[in-house]
Amino acid sequence: MVPIEYYLLLSAGLFCIGLFGILTRRNALLYLMCVELMLTAGNVNLVAFSFQHGNLTGQVFSLFVIALAAAEVAVGIGIVLVLYRNFRGVDVTEATTMRW
Questions:
Q1: What range defines the domain where residue 66 resides?
Q2: How many CB atoms neighbour CB 88 within 10 A?
């Protein structure tokens, strides 16, 4: 049986990679991928603690997070398409002209 500390280290690693990607990249598609990594880290935590405590609550919440991530990707791809159509690129620093 794998100890829960391994799952927590995996989750912390995924979250740190996602956070580093958000803080250092300018591409909107990479932002979406990094947010997905951070959500996956949360899912690993939910499932690990659910398995440790012997109930299914964390796994059910994990399914809700996956559904939320799918909706977030749909909205995010729409925003990326608008960025590309207006600015001929997906660099988020160019989108400051979209303000009022």
A1: 4-98
A2: 9
